[in-house]
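Appendix B. Raw example, untouched.
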Amino acid sequence: MIDSLLNLALGLLASAISAGLGWLAPTLRRRRRIGRVREFFGMPDGTECLLVVNRHTAVTSSKSVSRNDVYALMELAALVKECGARADVVGHDQVRQGLGGKAEFCLGGPESNERTAAHLRNWLPGVSFVAEPGQHYAGTITAGDETFRHDSTDGAALAYVLLARVHAGAGSRPVFLIAGQTATSNHAAVRYLTARHRQLARGHGRDGAFALVLKVVNPEAYGPDVVELASDVTAKAFATADPAGGAG
């Protein structure tokens, strides 16, 4: 009788240990994954980050935002929440602070976002947006000797977006620059960033700077879903950067 009770007790103990280990393993994996996400995006639990909102290029109001840019902001807000951080949503013409104190996501090209224009001047001087007269989208992107022009030809529509991460200095929080030719390309870059941050961390380091041009294929038909790397322009983008000129 005693042996039977002992065997029963040992069986229950073994089951409890197995159940505990079964719960603990995925919990630890999730914590490690969240830790990597927080490290890459510079958003430790309980910190604050900036979401810098651009304006709608097709209207005159500085407070109007494109629907697709709103979708992009919603996905960024979900990322911030997952990291346990808090989002401070600020208009592009209302930000008066330097880089590095908070993680920052700056949405939109230089024509719709004044802060994007400042970041390009101070941190990515090798990249420019060349205006196309009479067009409703942001200008052609150039990086060194490479040119990325918006193509709205029927059946072969293409849009491009610059996705970059900038660090003001050692120990600073990163700035993510999402500067597309269209609002749909901004949205596509946000999806690319949130889905492929592990690959980006492996390729550029968890705190390294990078500049990529992404190609959004036929956005009129596929929206932000079909996006691919067009070129890694990191070396060209930062070629003559002067960090002292952009630090806050």
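End of appendix B.
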